Amino acid sequence: MAIAPLSRSSIACPSSSVRETCAPSAPSAQPVSPTLANKVSPRQMFGADGFDSPLSAKKAGGLEAGGLEAMVQELARMMQELSKAAELLGGEGGASGQGLPALQAPAKGVEGASGAGAGPQAAPAVAGPQAPAKGVEGASGAGAPGAAKGGNTMTFTNDGTSPMTVNFTPNAGDKAIDSVTLKPGEARTVEFPQGWSGNFRSTAGDGAAATLGEVKFNGGDNQTYYDVSYIEGTNASMTIEPEGGGRKSGTMENLLASAPDSVKAKTADGSVYGIKKTTTSNVQDQGVVDFYRKHVGADQGYVIPTDDASTLATKGSHLVVRMKDLTQGTTGRV
Question: Which of 66, 138, 157, 324 could share a disulfide with 237, CB 3.0–4.6 Å?
Answer without folding.
Answer: 324
